Give the backbone structure.
Amino acid sequence: MKLTPPKFRELKQSGRKIVVLTAYDFPSAAILDACGVDAILVGDSLGNVVQGRQTTLPVTLDQIIYHAEMVARAASHALVIVDLPFPFCQLGPKAATKAAARILKETLADAVKIEGGANRAATIAAVVEAGIPVIGHCGLLPQDVHRLGGYVVQRDQERLLADVAAVESAGAFGVVLECVTADIATEATKKVGIPTIGIGAGPHCDGQVLVFHDLLGFSAEGDAKVPRYVKRYADLRQTIGDAVKQYAEEVQNGTFPNPR
């Protein structure tokens, strides 16, 4: 059965932790969906992970729609959430609503994610009013990386709690908490009626999200740029590298393809 935004919100009351992972293509999303992941995020992190860029800022609306359409076709169970890329979160309600509508119309995804707290409340409210489900994103905001001076842990509890409350009041059905201290994430989770999904925010959120490639050890840089909060469950970079080297060796020595 397909998970919907209202059912996603209800998971908080059930007490079961919510499982979220990113995906950027059809086969990856199909694997996650078959494994019973609750939600798949088509993140603008594809700029870092797939495109090899330093930030998420260059990712365009057309690019994220391209990836989201593949993911949504693969997901028969999981809720599919798509990042609203820079600068549509920042341009105000009208631009954000128009971009979010394109995402849902052209991808068959279920919801969009909007970065920002109280300063994005009017934008979130407008998108929700247009009939488009929204999940918020507070704490470290990758689209604000230049203003923040880098990817740093957020520690201003008063501001963060106000941001999460504003996101809920604006109509979001959940909120991602990125790189905030565990005590702040715990307090935020207690104070709001919507699920909190942590990434680098400690164990007491209602759920967790990780980048698919980080979890699998599948990145161009290996461990060099993996955040400290990530747990690596496999080492696909090594496995794939070994397989490619074996293939190359067998081609060069004539043992592949096998003579008939």
The two ends are 48 Å apart (CA to CA). The domain at 5-234 is CATH 3.20.20.60 (TIM Barrel). The chain has a mean pLDDT of 95. Residues 98 and 127 are 9 Å apart (CA to CA).
